[in-house]
Amino acid sequence: MVPSQAFTIATRIVNQLIRDRRTMAMIVIVPLVVMSLIGLSFPESTVLDYIAPALLATLALFFSFLLTGISFLRERSQGTLERIMASPVSRLDIVVGYLFGFFLFALTQTIIIILFTIYVLDVHYYGELWQIFIFQIVIITGAVNLGIFTSTFARNEFQMVQFIPLIVVPQIFLCGVIWPVEQMPDYLQWLSSVLPLTYAVDGLRDIMLSGKSLLDVGLDLAVMVGFTVVFSILAAVTLRRGAAS
To answer: For residue 13, what pLDDT band results from cuts at 50, 70 and 90?
Structure first.
């Protein structure tokens, strides 16, 4: 059952972001520009077909994390979060409300990226498209919760951006996007095994390149769901600290 005030909070966030035309334009334009550059950088279709799943997972995590982290930080800096927490609203209401609100825009970016990649860049895939969407939804849900949690440790947008090379970039290097994980030193393979993006990339590759189903990538999916739950709990635990910063 969804907490009673969660939809109210989510609706306020959605209406606020929709009124920000520049933000809405960036949400739509930036993924298209990035994917266009990627498509031009890999003119050979076979190379693009292979790297596309890893890019879809990586960009879903990156854009969702950045959008949520900065937007949530703005809620704190404007005093909105503190006012909400002063009202008779539970932490669960707040976390779920913010999750739903930011999730809709992260989902919009992800849908744009997937459709552009498949129908404009003409990337070939073997799994079911709806299963690709479901797997991506799990990724962005975890990324949104990670963004909420991380933003509680930042006092301004500059500090929030600095979390990208600390949290996102290492995952890109260690998840197998650039270099196969099994060819890395043992200690890096161990580190890779505790990073959510590793399982996101592996699962999406199995679906798109091997035609596997969600049941076949059940372990990767379960790990991603586990990360999502952990990040949501951490976000709720650190919420009071974030409001007081």
So the answer is: confident
Instruction: Determine the pLDDT at residue 195.
Output: 93
The pLDDT-based confidence of 4 (bands split at 50, 70, 90) is low
- Estimate to the nearest angstrom the gap between the alpha carbon of 127 and the chain centroid: 21
CB atoms within 10 A of CB 127: 22
In the chain, domain spans: 6-244
- Contact in structure between 148 and 98 (CB atoms under 8 Å): yes
- HSE-CB at 227 with a 13 A cutoff on CA atoms is 24
CB of 97 within 8 A of CB of 7? Answer: yes
Q: Which residues contact 143 (CB under 8 A, 6 or more apart)?
A: 60, 61, 62, 64, 65, 68, 106
DSSP state of 19: H
Q: Return d(Cα 98, Cα 141) in angstroms, integer.
A: 11
Q: Is 139 within 8 Å of 60 (Cβ atoms)?
A: yes
DSSP conformation class of 44: S
- Helix (H) or strand (E) segment spanning residue 61: helix 45-77
